[in-house]
Amino acid sequence: MKILMTGSTGFVGTALCQDLQRARHTVCRLVRPGTAAEKTRGAGCFDVNWNPATGELGGAAVGADAVVNLAGASIADGRWTAERKRLLLASRVDTTRALVQALSKMAARPRALVSASGIGYYGSCGDQVLTEESPLGHDFLSRLGQEWEAEAAKAEAIGIRVVRARFGVILAKHGGALPRMARPFLWGAGGKIGSGEQWMSWVTLQDVVGILRFALENGAARGPINVVSRQPVRNAQFTKMLAKTLHRPALFPAPAFALRLLLGEMANELLLSSQRVMPTQLEKLGYRFLHPDLAGALAAVLAVA
């Protein structure tokens, strides 16, 4: 397949580009004006000019079979000031809107669009089991997810199959949340976050890549898909397992009040919220997880050189 991709040099995008190239797909990285994207260049991978402000999409995009939309500023890089929130929204919502508008102008449109989202869509729901049919939450990440997904879904009106991939906490040795979580344990100062009772819905980067490829290649995949493992765990269980894998103690909990003082709203929605999410649609479609349980996942991820 010939696949257009936004966010190709990000954490997930870099891994997906490399995997698609190995599978002999052609990856066309949509590159903004003045952006250098050298990380994943190689056979079967080249750049296509892309200007979200004008909607201009380079001619090399012609003939694409599918699109992967991973664009978006990092949720966890910086306190959520009003300005930061505007950036988080614009980098996802405005970019996705411009992308769909550009696709609508193509004479021969791609057959599929796989667009990123997050399980923050559901808000914090305690012990409630969440599926793709669960309702929208009421906080900032819920609003962001709703608006982001709404722009992607507009591609359905122009005949494109749309998958909205709601990512959980992605585990990888280099990049994402895990290195930050592991650092206090390596210093001997790790422990649960807050009460430790909040549910964490996780997935390995290897499975994220596998699921995105599965969504691209499987014509039955459409609508929201929870990109999480089948075994969500409470934070206390996660930190205990992480400490065991790292051969470190887990003796020093991070108090909720201190996290709120340090990070404000971001602490509530990223660290203290409880989301017990199940990959119901993936199970119906028959996706087989490479790392279905947390112990095996952490051992595999942290063993990677």
Task: Write a structural description.
It is a single chain. The protein is an alpha/beta fold and 305 residues long. The protein has a domain at 2-169 and 201-228 and 278-288: 3-Layer(aba) Sandwich (Rossmann fold). 37% of the residues lie in helices and 19% in strands. The chain has helices spanning 11-22, 82-104, 140-153, 178-186, 205-217, 235-246, 256-263, 265-271, 280-285, 294-303; strands at 2-6, 26-31, 45-51, 56-57, 66-69, 112-118, 129-130, 161-167, 169-171, 199-200, 202-204, 223-227, 233-234, 276-277. It has an eight-stranded mixed β-sheet with strand order 4-3-2-1-5-6-8-12, with helices on both faces. Helix 1 (11-22) crosses helix 5 (205-217), helix 2 (82-104) packs parallel to helix 3 and helix 7 (256-263) packs across helix 8 (265-271).
Task: Give the helices and strands, then pairings.
Layout: E1 2-6, H1 11-22, E2 26-31, E3 45-51, E4 56-57, E5 66-69, H2 82-104, E6 112-118, E7 129-130, H3 140-153, E8 161-167, E9 169-171, H4 178-186, E10 199-200, E11 202-204, H5 205-217, E12 223-227, E13 233-234, H6 235-246, H7 256-263, H8 265-271, E14 276-277, H9 280-285, H10 294-303
What's the CATH H-level homologous superfamily of the domain at 2-169 and 201-228 and 278-288? NAD(P)-binding Rossmann-like Domain
Percent strand: 15-25%
| H and E string | EHEEEEHEEHEEHEEHEEHHHEHH
CATH architecture of the domain at 2-169 and 201-228 and 278-288: 3-Layer(aba) Sandwich
What is the CATH C level class of the domain at 2-169 and 201-228 and 278-288, in words?
Alpha Beta
Largest sheet properties: 8 strands, mixed
Number of strands: 14
- Give the low-pLDDT segments: none
Euclidean distance between termini CA atoms: 30 Å
Question: Which strand order do you get reading across the main beta sheet?
Answer: 4-3-2-1-5-6-8-12
Task: Name the structural class.
Answer: alpha/beta
Rg estimate, integer Å? 19 Å
Please tell me what the overall shape is: globular
Q: Could you report the average pLDDT, rounded to the nearest whole number?
A: 92
Q: Please give the count of helices.
A: 10
Here the CATH topology of the domain at 2-169 and 201-228 and 278-288 equals Rossmann fold
Percentage of helical residues?
25-40%
